[in-house]
Amino acid sequence: MSTDINASTESAAPSGSLHRALDWRGAFWVAAGVPPLVLFSIGGIAGVAGQAAYVVWMLSMCMGFLQSFTYAEMAGMFGNKSGGASIYGATAWLRYSKIIAPLSVWCNWFAWSPVLSLGCAIAAGYVLNALFAIPAADSQLVLDWIAANGAQFTAESQPVVDYLAANAGTSPADAISAVSTAAAVEALTPAIRHWEAFALTIPGLGTLHFNSTFVIGAVLMLIIFAIQHRGIASTASAQKVLAVIVLVPLFLVGIVPIITGSINYMNVTDIVPPSVAYGGDRGSWDVGGWTLFLGAMYIAAWSTYGFETAVCYTAEMRDPARDTFKAIFFSGLLCMVFFFVIPFSFQGVFGAAGMLEPGIVDGTGIAAALGSMVSASNIVTQIFVILMIMALFLAIMTAMAGSSRTLYQGSRDGWLPRYLGHVNEHGAPTNAMWTDLGFNLFLLALASDAGGYFYVLAISNVGYLTFNFLNLNAGWIHRIDSGHIRRPWKAPTFLIGLNTVLAFVNALFLGAGAKVWGYSGALWSGVIFAALILPVFWYRHYVQDGGHFPPEALEDLGLKGGELGERKAGILPYLALALGATIVIWANWFFVLPG
């Protein structure tokens, strides 16, 4: 079936469908929220990769850029679908297993969707710091409190006695100073920083914290929902404004230290992982060191591969045959610049040890660090706080737009529940957006303390690398099974082959890397979460649809009447699955953390 659409006219969208309101520039702007994702985990990756951190970002970005050519080819084949690469690749697996297709879509969705909760958690931290700051230990407020109340602490006071017991060799005077300073900071910290309505522990998962971070993050999420409620054109317009405001200063922050000579090249040479995660000491390239490096590659992929979201909007493009490749190609070039420059400059200025500051690791201190790279002015720092919040909005907008369309198209193709296929009068998939919102309110509660943040990230990335493995293999499966289908843009064959190899490299990252982030069971938690789609798909496909897919599911491949087509690839897809699973299991066994 031909997917050509006249670029000179914008056809009226049928009632209940997405609106064709974008050209490649609009999709590019919607995807422009990907570069700020570098700020989500720049501290965490420095903690596990040490001096090798910026190399991790560069290698991961190169892999993401190469992989995008496979996704661009597949996207061009499906001019009538939205939802992104997972949707287009999933159709390749349908002939071989009905289960693999919805699994791929589900894994992509639960990898992308947490950007909402993680971004809102960081943004809420910035709001709290701006309005209800914890006083610095050397601030005048703290000094005044100590002057007024410090006499209550003597060498015989129980807190001082406890401090001396825990810190052998400390003098009583130093212990009194430390205890009184801590008491002053505690007394002057606004009560809202400690407020929590309640906490709920879920065995095997974590603790849900319904605190001030959760409340502020939920409000921010609703604001973003309201913007996207008016459709993709409105979203693209808002993204364009945000992107220009955010990305230009962010680029300058990355390039200024290089131009002014502020890079300390001792910080970016002697490329070795640390001796232990978050240890700061240089290690070696032994099994433990490689485990940390692969763990960093594992998490970096969640950010660097993310510009593939540019092809989520094919069904909303006026001319998908022309615009799809341009959207993902130029989005990839944009990300290449930022994922190369920002980590290099950041590490060059602060060093691997400096990037382990708690505020950089959890994201709430990154604005101050960015500001300090170009100026010592407090005003500049405050400007970067505002820019950081806007950058988070940019990333969250991208995530909600893409992930909701994945749910929408998954519903239309018969893989996910029917209610997700609804759109409003503006062509926005509102039921999918509400589902995204509800899921992320749950994740926001889980990520509302520092311990839960990287747990959510580690589990969601199990889904993302699973999706990438399946989709990169889908590229050659489509070449074999649907070679006759017109491709508006066709990737060089050697790239399809290279990206197939990279699929198994991603399997290596998955097996070795998930355990690095402090949660030994993260891989298996992610696998269990991925498996939750199976009963959902079974009910939709076999109970609601009687074992048949909707007519539109495979019409782009020229297949009608529910037929799935000939399995021309034979046993090769099954062999790919078996090899991928073997690599994951072996890597999880072989690679161990340094100890």
UniProtKB/TrEMBL annotation:
Coiled coil stretches, renumbered: none
One cellular component (GO) term of this entry: plasma membrane
Pfam families reported in the protein's UniProt record: AA_permease_2
Residues that span the membrane, as ranges: 27-48, 54-72, 105-128, 208-229, 241-267, 287-307, 327-346, 379-402, 491-510, 516-539, 571-592
Keywords for this protein: Cell membrane, Membrane, Transmembrane, Transmembrane helix
Molecular function terms from GO: transmembrane transporter activity
Membrane-topology annotation of the record: Multi-pass membrane protein
Protein location: Cell membrane
Keyword Transcription regulation: no
InterPro entries: AA/rel_permease1 (IPR002293), APC_superfamily (IPR050367)
Protein name per Swiss-Prot or TrEMBL: Amino acid permease
